Amino acid sequence: MQHIEKPGDSNKNTDRPRSVYIATYGCQMNLRDSEVITGLLLEQGFGITEEEKRADTVLLVACSVRQHAEDKVWSEIGRFSKMVPKPVIGLIGCMAENYKDSAFKRMPGIDLVVGTNNIGEIPQLLKDIFDTRRKAQDIKRKLSVGKANRDEFVYQPEFRQEENHSFVVISEGCDNFCSYCIVPYVRLRLRHRNPENIQKEIESCIKKGIKSITLLGQNVNAYQFKAVSQDQEIRISPPPLPSPHRGREYRSRSIVNFIQLLELVNNIDGLREFSFVTSHPKDASPGLFQAMADLEKLKKYLHLPFQSGSNRILELMHRGYSSKHYLELAKQYRKIIPEGVLSTDVIVGFPGETEEDFLETKKLLEAVRFNHAYIFKYSPRLNTKAEKLKDDVPKDEKERRHKILLDSQRQISRELKSKT
Ligand code: SAH
Ligand code: SF4
Ligand code: F3S
Predict the structure, then answer these.
(1) Is 115 in the pocket of ligand 3 (CB under 6 A)?
(2) Taking the complete model, does pTM exceed 0.85, yes or no?
(3) Domain 3-144, what architecture?
């Protein structure tokens, strides 16, 4: 990220921070959110710095998915609080939504707490803080969380972090409520962006020379945009099936599903390639894999978390599929897209996970033979359903299971790589 400092702003008598340092933790959603925040700040004349020592403001775009992720951010806030002079400190995103005003009590160095859907307010909130500072008044802490929707303007700033690739959000939030997961509580209800806005955003990336896009969402393949009235009908480019997913003509649609959105994106002039993350097995189908095979710009890459191979644990996790169903899906994917890459997420040590349950997970991991797998140790999350279950798999045992799966996956990844 560049250091953009406006020469005219280099006196203390300003209501805008001259050098905001943004630290990003967690998933691609947070990466995109940090980019959006940077863009909004730049548009309003704020300076951005990559050097934390130069910063008069530090924003931590933070993740709550596991305890370890949060611990790291609390410790960084402690470190920034000790800097002299102390910068204005903002806790932003999932952790802000999780802790709300209690974050101020826990870490008195925090001046600003802004939730995932409130990020559009950051420039104004910082102006207010710097205005009180300019008037030599005590900084009043600012809290803004719990907004149900994101405004479209959040996605409109020109700024992009990378020259050749960009993330484009297609859906926000999650309604799946997997029992272990905090995301539905911090990203809130599932919302789908209007396909016309998605198309416009991709076209604006292309104008900047960015020709590779990743479509983002917690559960992208549940995508479904419904126009609520006739004048909201969506004009999309691909003609309906059985066409070969291409064509220039525009059709009105009142509902656009995920496969239709992929067709629409595939048809955008000037786009070279695109992919999407993350998919949920309950919303994946051979029809989706066929579309992936057919759409020439779509990368043959699927991230499809299975989490556990034990049906008993899958049920406790509220995942909505069986291990047999998952294996069948994976086989279909390999059959329809033999050259495709397949990756997954797995959790070991979920409450009550026995050695047998664990071996079922190992069996599924080894039966599918993923190209990559991200293996996590279960971490209880506040207010989730699984938090009420006893976290009874000892730490050492979680470590052991984690290592066994990592070793097994490393071997599989190596073998698959050597074949290509
Ligand atoms: N929406 C995505 C990503 C969710 S978070 C999805 O559904 O796949 C990324 C991964 O973190 C999850 O797939 C899961 O494997 C892991 N995870 C989520 N909550 C967790 C928890 N409480 N403990 C350990 N791992 C967790
Ligand atoms: Fe979390 Fe499940 Fe939603 Fe993924 S699908 S974000 S694991 S609740
Ligand atoms: Fe973390 Fe929020 Fe992403 S909790 S994994 S940053 S959606």
Answers:
(1) no
(2) yes
(3) 3-Layer(aba) Sandwich (3.40)
Is the CB–ligand 1 distance for residue 179 below 6 Å? no
Q: At a CB cut-off of 8 Å and minimum separation 6, what does 276 contact? A: 170, 214, 215, 216, 217, 220, 221, 262
Q: What separation in Å is there between the alpha carbon of 65 and the centre of ligand 1?
A: 7
From first to last of its 420 residues, what are the pLDDT tens digits of the chain?
A: 444 444 334 445 566 668 999 999 999 999 999 999 999 999 999 999 999 999 999 999 999 999 999 999 999 999 999 999 999 999 999 999 999 999 999 999 999 999 999 999 999 999 999 888 777 767 789 999 999 999 999 999 999 999 999 999 999 999 999 999 999 999 999 999 999 999 999 999 999 999 999 999 999 999 999 887 777 677 666 544 445 555 444 567 788 999 999 999 999 999 999 999 999 999 999 999 999 999 999 999 999 999 999 999 999 999 999 999 999 999 999 999 999 999 999 999 999 999 999 999 999 999 999 999 999 999 999 999 999 999 999 999 999 999 999 999 999 999 999 876
- Identical topology for domains 3-144 and 169-418: no
Going by CA atoms, what residue is nearest to atom 2 of ligand 2?
178
Q: Ligand 1 centroid vs 32 CA: distance in angstroms?
A: 18
Domain residue ranges in the chain: 3-144, 169-418
**Number of helices (H) and strands (E), helices first, in the chain?**
13, 17
Strand, helix or coil for residue 12:
coil
CATH, domain range 169-418: 3.80.30.20
- What's the 182 CA to ligand 3 centre distance in angstroms? 8
Quote the tokens at residue 226. 């419904």
CB of 307 sitting under 6 A from ligand 1: yes
Report yes or no: 358 and 394 within 8 Å, Cβ to Cβ: no
**Ligand 1: centre distance to CA 210 (Å):** 29
d(CA 375, CA 382): 21
CA of 297 to the centre of ligand 2 (A): 27
CA-proximal residue: ligand 3, atom 1 (nearest): 63
User: Does 176 contact ligand 2 (Cβ within 6 A)?
Assistant: yes
> Is residue 100 classed exposed, middle or buried when 0-12, 13-18 and 19+ CB atoms within 10 A define those classes?
middle
